[in-house]
Fold:
Amino acid sequence: MTPVSKTPRKRNGAGVETETAPRQLHFDDNTLQPLLFGEHDRNLARLEQLLGVRLASRGDCLSISGPPEDVDIAELALIALYERLREGLEVGDGEIDAAARMAAKAPMTVAGGKSAGDPHADDIVIRARKAPISPRSPNQAAYIRALRGYELVFATGPAGTGKTYLAVAMAVSLLQEGRVDRIILSRPAVEAGERLGFLPGDLREKVDPYLRPLYDALYDMLPAQQVIGRLSNGEIEVAPLAFMRGRTLANSFVILDEAQNTTPVQMKMFLTRLGENSRMVVTGDLSQVDLPAQQGSGLRDATDLLSHMDGLAFVRFTNRDVMRHSLVTRIVRAYEAREPNKDGSGG
Structure:
């Protein structure tokens, strides 16, 4: 049952809503309240800091005070966090920040309805092994919807925004549902040209360090033995971009990571591998192109060339979508402030 909201409101002579008496939220499961509020109400304190409202708990009732618009946001965030706890999932600082972000971008709906900013809406939740994966920002929600709805998706933006992680999560989900037969994960093996010969070891030892982030995402989604087994039988393939040449990838979910380090020729080669009943995701950060200065980025070229084409989607993340340590967000912002025109990705 959704928490019950009692919402006294007042408007001034111009019809503009002003701060009113505290809004009351009642939660029907008392066992979840301590988890929602946090130890010594630390979760409520975090929401107060994020949203500029005042929260006070008494028994099964939580009062929200502040400007009506901020109160609306806080109410939606609290309901989303409560629903997360009802599903048996944890609520920590990351989930609180995510709920606040999502609520700030979506107005409340009628009672009993799901808001467009509800992080638990069915179309933006990826069912994974450990727990359902919900978006932590409106752009992540748009990205998940694009992954579901389009055969080709481009995702650009800074590190830590979930571009690769969410793509791998969607790929694993579709593989487990039997909607694709295999997952193919690729990236330029060595920045600026895939020159592997000078590295020690056999081919696997040469390319593995560059593909490690893709392996890490896989191990987050599947038990280790399943990853090993699916890699062995070919259901999951992790390979450098050069291995894609000459292939037609049918019944597959194909991800090209670090695509900013492809050349236009490599990007064209990759995109034309798309076969029947396949999906393709291209991710990259145009602020971190490692190609020689005279060599244009294939990701930037494809973004310029294909951005108005029907049948594919572009999702552009910004530093507001960075989900890593809060210090990472501040670092990204500092670099962007110093070099505002270097990115070229719009985020």
